[in-house]
Specification:
With about 280 residues, the chain is of the alpha+beta class. The chain is about 15% helix and about 25% strand. It starts with about 20 loop residues before the first strand and ends in a 10-residue tail after the last helix. Bound molecules: adenosine-5'-triphosphate and magnesium ion.
């Protein structure tokens, strides 16, 4: 099956891991999009080439399980063949992928880290914000994966008390990421730093929220910065998800001004050979 064909008819029902497999040949810079509503999981195996799911490389000849409720994309930079078992509601190959934008964001951050190292300063901090269910956590996962694959040790901070990505809902948490996320399980959450907030909505006690999320005036949340953040202009990266690096300054001061854009630094492809995400990392 090739890129941008209409969504494939799902393979016939049957035991998800032992029924007939559907083979997908992915050209370079394409992705296999999956949506699994259920009731059975879908399994995917990389047969040849290189592929990744949200920045985690797939191991060849290993079957990965996507349970009901999953939405995922198996992306390849260089081309690959994957096999699929099960009856996903959606399974098709697409050239229309945000991965180049994501890679550009990673490259921009990597340049900032290199600069911070040269100048013995603190590396970039990135705030990812946007409406619900648009891919914020996935973008964080991908940027963390790429950073850790380049030998960095990034920190994931979950400020959304409605989520339980680092600990349980109702908390604010931070996690030092030392290895890429497991495709099925996500990041290893050993020894996270977690503060109890006690509600899944910051507005129930904004003073306490500002205190547990760290620093600043508990009433306003701002850290010695005279002006509150102003509304930001539309973001060039995506209509939904905003990525704002806050390099070396109090959390809010850079937000309206500094933005990672797809055009940061050199043109996207000229960075690719240098920032190649090595499969052996
Ligand atoms: N680039 C992508 N390709 C395919 N699926 C994606 C992509 N980004 C996100 N998804 C899927 O979309 C769903 C929502 O993504 P995610 O959880 O990252 O959104 P979110 O903005 O963090 O949501 P919430 O507001 O609930 O925190 C997930 O199932 C995720 O796997
Ligand atoms: Mg999320």
């Amino acid at each position: 099956m090739s890129a941008d064909e209409p969504p494939a008819a799902a393979p016939p029902d049957g035991p998800a891991s032992s029924g007939p497999a559907t083979k997908f040949e992915l050209e370079r810079e394409t992705e296999l999009r999956l949506e699994v509503e259920g009731p059975a999981p879908t399994r995917v195996e990389l047969v040849s080439g290189l592929a990744e799911v949200f920045g985690t490389e797939l191991t060849r000849n290993k079957r990965y399980t996507f349970p009901p409720g999953s939405r995922a994309a198996v992306f390849t930079w260089h081309g690959c063949t994957v096999q699929l078992w099960g009856s996903p509601d959606v399974a098709y190959v697409s050239r229309d992928t945000p991965m180049l934008l994501y890679l550009n964001a990673h490259v921009g951050l990597e340049q900032m880290r290199a600069q911070a190292e040269r100048e013995a300063e603190r590396g970039p901090r990135v705030l990812v914000a946007g409406p619900g269910d648009v891919g914020k956590s996935t973008l964080c996962r991908l940027l963390l994966n790429y950073a850790v694959r380049r030998g960095r040790r990034p920190t994931l901070v979950e400020l959304d008390v409605g989520q339980g990505s680092v600990s349980v809902p109702g908390t604010v948490g931070a996690l030092c990421v030392e290895r890429p996320a497991d495709v099925e399980e996500g990041f290893s959450a050993q020894a996270p730093l977690v503060y109890h907030f006690g509600s899944t909505t910051p507005g129930t006690n904004i003073k306490l929220y500002n205190k547990v999320r760290g620093g600043g005036d508990p009433d306003t949340g701002y850290t010695s910065h005279p002006d509150p953040p102003t509304p930001s202009p539309p973001d060039p990266l995506s209509p939904h998800t905003r990525i704002s690096p806050t390099l070396g300054s109090p959390p809010h001061s850079d937000l309206p001004h500094t933005r990672i854009s797809p055009t940061l630094g050199s043109p996207p492809h000229s960075d690719l050979p240098h920032t190649r995400i090595s499969p052996t990392l």
